[in-house]
Design the sequence.
């Protein structure tokens, strides 16, 4: 069992300033350049409400100006400079330690959350902070935006060689998915289980839903996540849900997505709304930014039928 916290200067220097893993920074910069977006991303924006969406315009705006912010939240949770998250980072590293884990990343956007998690893991392995046991990560990335899925595949491919150097085999399948269509959610789950029938653990990663506040969309997401959590009710599973710190009313609404899932227990030693404020270096704009993150984790480790 991994009990160690990670402490790499590549990720935190000087303490408590956080950095995105270098390989992820490079892959992000290269993808921005490949799409002709680097200059705009360097200039940044003062616009606040950027959440992505189905169209290429919404997706590319989010990718230019907010992709790194999503990454920084995952770095904060895993490095945990202010010790805000109890044993959560160790538990995540335990889930991603060896054998095979099947991840459902939904809605995945361009993959900021999962690719950051894996890039931090690879960095910690490269710095001998965690054991480099063979690990296969099978991912279904599902989102309504085809452009986001295309970017996800491209960045994942760019990172695969570095992951392999550190014992991590990554297989990503992307699926176009509208959460409002419950039959599509059912199909996504079918593909997830059929493609990764031999996984030791099923891990649902939900990153940054806070932009999705339209009541009809929230309802659709609730139905879809009810389905997803029912599908993992009799297997060893974890749900990790990551958001910036948001208004309590929005948190409450989104939390209802998971509240009926009695078979998923919230982590016992994680405060109900574990959160952290942190400073991080935005590598493209080359400036230090204040960030916030809150996280919820639900698990069913026994995998038995209740
Ligand atoms: C703020 S992004 C979060 C993406 C990613 N999880 C992250 O952490 O960067 C929200 C995502 O929700 C997706 N989305 C919005 N409505 C959706 C729907 N009805 N079905 C599936 N995805 C949707 C958007 O395309 C966008 O990629």
Sequence:
């Amino acid at each position: 069992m991994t009990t160690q916290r990670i402490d790499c200067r590549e990720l935190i220097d000087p303490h408590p300033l956080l950095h995105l893993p270098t390989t992820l920074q490079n892959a992000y910069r290269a993808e921005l350049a490949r799409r002709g977006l680097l200059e705009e991303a360097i200039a940044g924006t003062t616009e606040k409400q950027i959440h992505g969406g189905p169209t290429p315009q919404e997706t590319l705006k989010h990718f230019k100006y907010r992709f790194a912010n999503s990454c920084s939240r995952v770095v904060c949770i895993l490095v945990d400079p202010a010790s805000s998250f109890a044993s959560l980072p160790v538990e995540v590293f335990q889930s991603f330690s060896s054998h095979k884990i099947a991840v459902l990343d939904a809605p995945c956007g361009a993959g900021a959350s999962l690719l950051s998690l894996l890039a931090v893991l690879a960095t910690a392995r490269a710095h001998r902070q965690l054991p480099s046991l063979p690990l296969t990560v099978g991912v279904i990335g599902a989102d309504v935006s085809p452009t986001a899925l295309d970017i996800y595949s491209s960045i994942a491919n760019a990172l695969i060689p570095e992951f392999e150097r550190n014992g991590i085999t990554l297989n990503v399948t992307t699926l176009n998915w509208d959460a409002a269509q419950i039959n599509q959610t059912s199909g996504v789950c079918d593909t997830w289980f059929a493609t990764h029938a031999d996984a030791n653990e099923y891990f649902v990663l939900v990153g940054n839903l806070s932009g999705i506040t339209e009541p009809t969309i929230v309802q659709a997401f609730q139905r879809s996540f009810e389905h997803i959590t029912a599908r993992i009710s009799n297997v060893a599973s974890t749900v990790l849900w990551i958001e910036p710190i948001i208004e309590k009313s929005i948190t409450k609404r989104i939390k209802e997505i998971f509240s009926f899932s009695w078979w998923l227990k919230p982590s016992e030693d994680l405060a109900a709304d574990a959160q952290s404020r942190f400073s991080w270096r935005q590598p493209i704009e080359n400036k230090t930014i204040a960030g916030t993150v809150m996280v919820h984790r639900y698990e069913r480790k026994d995998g038995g039928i209740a």
In short: The radius of gyration is 18 Å.
